[in-house]
Amino acid sequence: MALKNIIDLTDGVILRYICTSNDSRIDINIFIGIVCRLTIFTILIIFKDIKQYSIGELIVWFIVWLVQHIYILCIEKNYIILGESKVLRREIEYKIMDSLQLLIGIIFLSLNLNSYIEILILVLFSIYFLLNFYIIIFKIKIKEGYTENFQKQGGVYQFYIGFLFGAVWQYLKYQNTLSDILIITMIGQFILVVFSFIIFCRHKSKFLWSNDLAKGILGIFYGIKVGIFSIFYGFIVGCLLIIWYIWEFCLKKYYIVKKKKRQETEEI
Keywords for this entry (predicted)? Predict the structure, then answer.
């Protein structure tokens, strides 16, 4: 098993022990990574409500999730929508995304070491980060003799189903513990979901259901990740809605009256 033909230890295990085609290995690998992240997130949410997190912890969570969302919505967009999979490029981009998340965790833990468990996690994160860095450099130097690129159509339907599931799960999680901020967030999230549904229905003829199991499952979990994180998007939309309301029904009227008085004064 040549090192240049695998992404990491997980991919090596998939290649050696699981009967799967080469064009499904990277999808399965990324899927396993997403499941691990979702599992950790779910455990943390169960044992610690979002209102118990400090500002620093919320910022770290936001940045970590934002990194993966940029990866899903911007970098993996061509694969999700068009089905184009440039294998080597996708592997390098995946490891860069993974390394950025690890680096954020390393920096935060380095500044907030309070127990032996946190020290252990910091050591593990650091080792994994260095391994990722080595793999990225190694992959960048590969010029030829690598796994061939492939094309897999469809997957947007699965992605949107996952998105709706993640968004609804977040809503059900916090509907009984609403504060003023959460109410604004839920309103924004509702607008976001409705808007996305309208866009999906208008362009559904361009989208396809993926018959490939690996890509279909990956699409669902990509959607779940985006759907869960939509609570942050909802907060941004809700804040913009409040700003628009204040301007449209309060400040705008005041500004128009003040401007009119100024013009009348100048005419006199």
Answer: Membrane, Transmembrane, Transmembrane helix
Full-model pTM = 0.80
Which candidate, 256, 167, 162, places its Cα nearest to that of 216? 162
Q: Mind listing the pLDDT tens digit for each residue in 195-219? A: 999 988 888 888 889 888 889 999 9
Give residue-wise pLDDT tens across range 99-149.
999 999 899 888 877 778 878 888 988 998 998 888 888 888 775 556 678
- One-letter amino acid at 219 equals G
- Tell me the longest C-alpha to C-alpha distance in the chain: 89
What tokens appear for 248 in the block?
């449209």
Report yes or no: 15 and 25 within 8 Å, Cβ to Cβ: yes
* Rounded percentage of the chain residues whose pLDDT exceeds 70: 81
**Residue 151 host element (H or E):** strand 150-151
CA distance 246 to 267: 30
Hey, what are 253's tokens?
A: 């009227």
CB count, 10 Å around CB of 248? 10
- Tokens for 74? 């911007």
In sequence order, the β-bridge partners of residue 143 are: none
Neighbouring C-alpha atoms within 13 Å toward the C-beta of 213:
4
Q: Cβ neighbours of residue 5 under 8 Å, at least 6 residues apart? A: 15, 146, 147
DSSP string, 77-121: HIIIII-EE-HHHHHHHHHHHHHHHHHHHHHHHHH---SHHHHHH
Tell which residue, 155, 115, 198, 195, has the closest CA to residue 24: 155
Residue-level length of the chain: 268
Q: Which amino acid is at 92?
A: I
The 3-state DSSP class for residue 245 equals helix
